[in-house]
Amino acid sequence: MDSPDRHHSGQSGSPNAIVLKAERLVKVFGQKGKTPVTALHEISLEVAGGGVTGLVGPDGAGKTTLLRLAAGLLLPSSGSISVLGLDATRQAIAIQSRVGYMPQQFGLYQELSVRENLDLYADLQGVPALQRPERYEKLLHMTGLAEFTGRRAGQLSGGMKQKLGLACSLIKAPQMLLLDEPTVGVDPVSRRELWDIVNQLVRDEGIGVLMSTSYLDEADRCDRVVVLHEGRILAQGEPKFFRETLRGRVFTFAPAPGRGARFLQGKLSGTAGVVDATIRSGRVRCVFDAVPSSPDGLVSCEDCLDIKAVEPNFEDAFMAMLPHQELPVTPRALHAEEGAEQEITVQARGLKKVFGDFEAVKGISFEVARGKIFGLLGPNGAGKTTTFRMLCGLTGVSDGEVLVAGKDLRRSRARARQRLGYMAQIFSLYRQLSVLANLEFFGRAYGLHGRKLAERIDWALDEFDLRTRQDVQAGDLPGGYRQRLAMAVALLHEPAILFLDEPTSGADPLARREFWLRINGFSQQGVTVVVTTHFMEEAEYCDTLLIMSRGAELAQGTPEEIRNLVRSHANPEPTVEDAFIALAEGEIPGQLIPNGGRP
Amino acid sequence: MTTAEATRMRLRGFVRKEFLQILRDPSSILLAIVMPVVLLFLFGYGVTLNPTRVPIAVVAADHSDFADDLVARFALSPYFDPVVVSSPQRAQRLLDDGEVDGFVQIRENFSSDLLRQGYSPVQIIVNGVDANRARLIQGYARGAIQRWSAVRQSRGEQPATGGVRLQAHIRFNEANESRNFLVPGLIALIMTLIGTLLTALVIAREWERGTMEAILVTPLRLHELLLGKIFPYYVLGMLGMLFAVAGGRWIFHVPLRGSLVLLVLLSSLFLLASLGLGLVISAATRVQFIAAQISIVAGFLPAFFLSGLLFDLESTPWVIQVVSHVIPARYFVEISHTLFLAGNIGSVLWPASLALALMALVFLGVARRKLSKRLE
Q1: Which of B9, B213, B374 is the closest to A103 by Cβ?
Q2: Which residues 360-389 of A have a C-beta within 8 angstroms of B?
Q3: B244 to chain A, minimum CA–CA distance in Å?
Q4: Is B262 in CB contact (< 8 Å) with chain A?
Q5: Which residues of A touch B16 (CB under 8 A)?
Q6: DSSP of A269-307
Q7: Could you give the percent of chain A with pLDDT greater than 90?
Q8: Is A120 within 8 Å of chain B by CB?
Q9: pLDDT greater than 70 at residue B272
Q10: What are the tens digits of pLDDT across the range A333-390?
Q11: Which of A187-191, A329-333, B276-280 has the highest mean pLDDT?
Q12: Using CA atoms, how far apart are residues B242 and A333, in angstroms rounded to an integer?
């Protein structure tokens, strides 16, 4: 990349000098009585200064371990890692006074104000008092926190916390920046702002940034990408290089009128040669394992309207790269229950929740028809979980009305709950019980017994592919299987309505795809699904969605209606995320916000 | 900037952060300030190991002057709140119903026997569920009867009832006030609360919130981290101690016969041992809930029950006595009792201080070894 003039002719040398170097790096975590887990297998890599290197990979790939090894927080089991030419094992302190590091939880003291947090890190990093005013001003200006210096960190929004965390790690003008998933769970606007700050730093100060992310769309913004999977480097290079290899292998299919995008996606994902099928902007995006001879031969005209070859992006490349196992989900045929779909199963009117003088949810109304997938979208802290808890009757309603399966939850919670399945955001099953014991316990708790219970458990073990692991303790299951078990438990008593709170949070792209295929299958069987997510692209899998921000509704409608809000000449095929950013920044006048066709 | 300056800057920043956190976090304030106040008043006013105004029944079948006089002795005693009943059956029912803790029976032939043979038995029946309390009531009753006999003697009505006359004299705690005994011991509790429980909790919270990870990647040295954690809680613990001394002195009039300087020095030793234990616990667990459980089981409960604070260790089974030797609070309670109630008695203070110093060294040493600047 071209490097503009820099003020600092710092010790890091030229901007493209190597700032981090790992050689045959191995990290094994061993605990007494447990089989050791190898987090990193002989990783060798180099990170250049003056640019952003993205560390991309699913959960458990070893991203955090690598960053912690670089920061001297962990000792390598074998091999070596050096940062700025210093050995991370022997010269950890020297590294720690030269790099900025931001852990996943930002490392802020909630009780301390913005200013006090900055003071603390300035003291710890030994920033001379004379240099502070200038440095603070620069950082506060860059992060937009100048007005909030007196506010406690605990009272900042997610995006502001993240920016303050970044400011703290930048307090001593580091020569290198290590960021561990800085954008996870943060709203799209803040994510974009964070990227602007990082890019500005690279431009102005020429520092090297190593940043892990599980958002694959962020990889396209990096100068270089390192793909980690199960502790090994699958590939590394410029994002352009990843995209090039996929040229001619990515197509989008428009569903025929009357056929939903989800139906078409289900069909295509089961087709030979297709390594990935997702719904993007209302079309099904397919990645093929090789350049296909005739993609139009794959689907019949009655399902598909037209096919377009499109520019590949990094996510396409990533999915093509991952060792694929066959997804165990085969979508079922469409149920022809057109009449039943008109029935409203979940209804909320003017839903409000007030905690003290804080309005967490400010009057939200929506309806969900039987067999539909309804998405509640918004960044962390938008009020999704509170809304959700009111729907399930887990918390009281300050004002408004909720009808679930025609029942007022305030009057007949127990009866209405019999028809609900609920999956909490955190894993809330008994970790010390086996998979089977968990299923038995929750089955009985929902009133199943005898042959019925045995039947349902059989179903769950098969449907979620858990039979081989039925005797494993739930706490020892790998992440993806835990999620499957949690979902199996929620579905055991054949609920008519399924509530899922952030089911894909922290899941890797593969697990998320599997999850949505499954949800799709259940909805086709007539199960109503209400789901929350902070992944904007997952909006495409919903029939209708409600976008929330700070407790209020930003917009409501089908994914297409939402996208159309921002369709313009400059952006002919906008995503839901584009719409969210425009809505959050008030670029769209309020009266244009659709209201789901209700008065 | 020199290394010493950098060290000072890091320490100052870290300690300031620690104080701000304590001041702004309600749960720290609760543990460090509210709890000691509650304990002081509970121990000063609420808990008392010597019962007063014990409800008893007096069965006076005899109506002579002698007997009336004796009944009046019970009524005049600050320790009793007697009701006079007519029959032993009635008294028994009151005892069964828990209305009274015991009864005194003065038989019909009490005065006639007394006049005839110079002595006459009086029966005392006490509810023995709480053996300690029963023994105390028994003692009070004996005291009341003795006083009655002394008064009669002084009037020349009757010579001593014969045999040995018991003369009890209570040393060191002349008023026989249990608060004089409890308030000095309270310092051990306050210091365990702050040194062990609060320290372990605060560090576990740093792990849970991810701030520890951020602190560890700064150039802060490990010994600076330890010092930065010890210093604020040391100050807080000493303030708690001075608070208990002041409260004891001016609110509850507990005497301080030994030297205050010595008390400050020796309680520092105990506080360091408590802090060491707190740091060891936080090296072992990074979860607040577990840290609290371990601190309560390993620090607070032993300081309460096995230190001689509530129960006299001399009268416990030998196993308990052996176990109590590994509990720092045991030595400190001994020191505190001695300094408050007896004075600067070297033969007691020296061995106990030595034991405390050793424990402080061991705990702090283990903490230094176990804590590291790495996450493993």
Answers
A1: B213
A2: none
A3: 29
A4: no
A5: 119-120, 123
A6: HTSTTEEEEEEETTEEEEEESS--S-GGGGS-TTTEEEE
A7: 27
A8: yes
A9: yes
A10: 444 444 455 688 888 898 898 887 778 888 899 999 888 899 998 877 778 888 888 8
A11: B276-280
A12: 78
A374: CB partners within 8 A, 6+ apart: A346, A366, A368, A528, A529, A530, A531, A542, A543, A544, A545, A546
CA of A140, closest CA in chain B: separation in Å? 20
Please tell me the pTM assigned to this model: 0.78
Helix (H, G, I), strand (E, B) or coil at B45: helix
Q: Which residues pair with A250 in a beta bridge?
A: A287
**Cβ of B209 and A68 within 8 Å?**
no
Q: Which residues of B touch A67 (CB under 8 A)?
A: none
What is the token pair recorded at B336? 């505190």
Q: Which of B9, B21, B213 sits opposite A109 (nearest CB)?
A: B21
What is the average pLDDT value for chain B, to the nearest integer? 84
**Closest CA in chain A for residue B15:** A120
Contact B14 A96 (CB under 8 A): no
Give residue A397's pLDDT band: very low, low, confident or very high (50, 70, 90).
Answer: confident
Q: So what's the pLDDT on residue B8?
A: 93
Nearest to B219 among A97, A110, A169 (CB): A97
| CA atoms within 13 A of residue B253's CA, in its CB half-sphere | 4
Asked if pLDDT for residue B230 goes beyond 80, the answer is yes
pLDDT digits (tens, 9 = 90+) for B47-99: 666 677 888 888 888 888 878 888 888 888 888 888 888 888 888 888 888 88
**Inter-chain residue contact B221 with A93, CB threshold 8 Å:** yes
The HSE-up count of residue A578 (CA atoms within 13 Å, CB side) is 18
Instruction: Write down the pLDDT at residue A8.
Output: 41
Cα–Cα distances in angstroms (integers) from residue A258 to residues A83, A255, A261, in the given order: 57, 8, 9
Number of H helices, E strands in chain A: 17, 24
CB B200 within 8 A of CB B292: yes
Give the C-alpha separation, B127 to B95, whole Å: 7
Question: Which candidate from B9, B209, B221 shows the least CB-CB separation from A123?
Answer: B9
pLDDT on residue B170: 47
A73 touches chain B (CB under 8 A): yes
Residues 6+ apart with CB under 8 A from A296: A307
Cα nearest neighbour of A179 on chain B: B214
Closest-approach residue (CA) in chain B for A104: B210
Tell me where in chain B the CATH 3.40.1710.10 domain(s) lie. Answer: 54-171
Question: Would you call A125 an interface residue with chain B, using a CB distance cutoff of 8 Å?
Answer: yes
> With bands split at pLDDT 50, 70 and 90, how would you rate the model's confidence at A590?
very low
Report yes or no: A28 at the B interface, CB cutoff 8 Å. no
Residue A295: what pLDDT? 67
Q: Which residues of chain A neighbour B28 with C-beta distances below 8 Å?
A: none
pLDDT tens by residue, A109-154:
999 999 999 999 999 999 999 999 999 999 999 888 998 899 999 8
Band (pLDDT 50/70/90 cuts) for residue A17 is confident
Chain B residue numbers with beta carbons less than 8 Å from the beta carbon of A130 are: none
Q: Name the residue with higher pLDDT: B6 or A106.
A: B6
Check if the beta carbon of residue A316 is closer than 8 Å to that of residue A250: yes
Residue type, A266: G
Q: Could A123 and B13 be called an inter-chain contact, meaning their C-beta atoms sit closer than 8 Å?
A: yes
Q: Is the pLDDT of residue A7 over 50?
A: no
Determine contact, residues A195/A227, Cβ cutoff 8 Å. Answer: no
Helix (H) or strand (E) holding B181: helix B179-192
DSSP 3-state of B272: helix
Q: Which CATH number fits domain B54-171: 3.40.1710.10, 3.20.20.70, 3.30.70.890, 3.10.150.10?
A: 3.40.1710.10
End-to-end CA distance of chain A: 54
